[in-house]
Each structure stands twice: as structure tokens, then as C-alpha cells.
Amino acid sequence: MQKSFKALNIKCDGCASTIKESLKSEFGEVDVDLSQEPRVVTLEIKDEEAEQNFLKKMRSLGYPLEGEELGTFTKGTLKAKSFVSCAIGKINKK
């Protein structure tokens, strides 16, 4: 089923590109709506296990979902990861 999630730290096309590339082998087509704040990521989620894998992957890239309980240190770490993911996305997009 198609499911949408509000994600934090997504700033630009570079971020969106990294997310799409990182998730496409497991989830297929991924849409990142950059016109909303927080950004909305929409993809096909088959079951609870797939949703948990998606959440873990997003956090590993530095893009936690809105409403996740995060400590100050974790927020800072994820923001730094998102900058790296963004830069990689920009490089790979060229």
C-alpha cells in the first residue's frame, strides 16, 4: 500500500536524490515532495517489517521522521548525517 511519511532534515534535490537511490532497490519508486515542510516521502510499504526497515534506513541517512523522540545529541548527529547524504546526492545527480 502507498504510504506517506513526514521527514525532517530534507532540504533540496540532493537530499531527495539520496533518499530515492538508497530506497529504490527495496521499495521501488519513491517520491519526495519538496513543496511541503516538513517534506513528505511517499512509497510502497508492504507490511510492518518493511515499514520498520524504511524507518531505520531514513535514520541511517540522517532523515528522521516527524514525531520521533530524539535527544539533543541524536538530533545533531542526524543533521550532520543529512548534510553528508545531501552532498552525496548532489554529486551523484550530476
Key features of this structure:
single chain; 94 residues; globular; 3 strands; alpha+beta; 3 helices; 3-stranded antiparallel β-sheet
Describe the biggest sheet? 3 strands, antiparallel
Shape descriptor reads globular
Structural class by helix and strand composition: alpha+beta
Q: State Rg.
A: 12 Å
Q: What is the N-to-C order of secondary-structure elements (H for helix, E for strand)?
A: EHEEHH
Which range does the strand content fall in? 15-25%
Number of helices: 3
Strand order within the widest sheet? Answer: 1-3-2
- The helix fraction, in percent, is 40-55%
Overall average residue pLDDT: 88
Straight-line N-to-C gap: 32 Å
Low-confidence stretches: none
Count of distinct strands: 3
SSE order and pairing:
Elements: E1 2-7, H1 13-27, E2 31-33, E3 39-44, H2 48-61, H3 72-93
Antiparallel strand pairs: 1-3, 2-3
Helix pairs in contact: 1-2, 1-3
What's this, in brief?
By secondary structure, the protein is an alpha+beta fold. It has helices at 13-27, 48-61, 72-93, and strands spanning 2-7, 31-33, 39-44.
Provide an overview of this structure.
The chain is α+β, with helices and mostly antiparallel strands. It is built from 3 helices and 3 strands. It has a 3-stranded antiparallel beta sheet, covered by helices on one side. Helix 1 runs antiparallel to helix 2 and helix 1 (13-27) packs across helix 3.
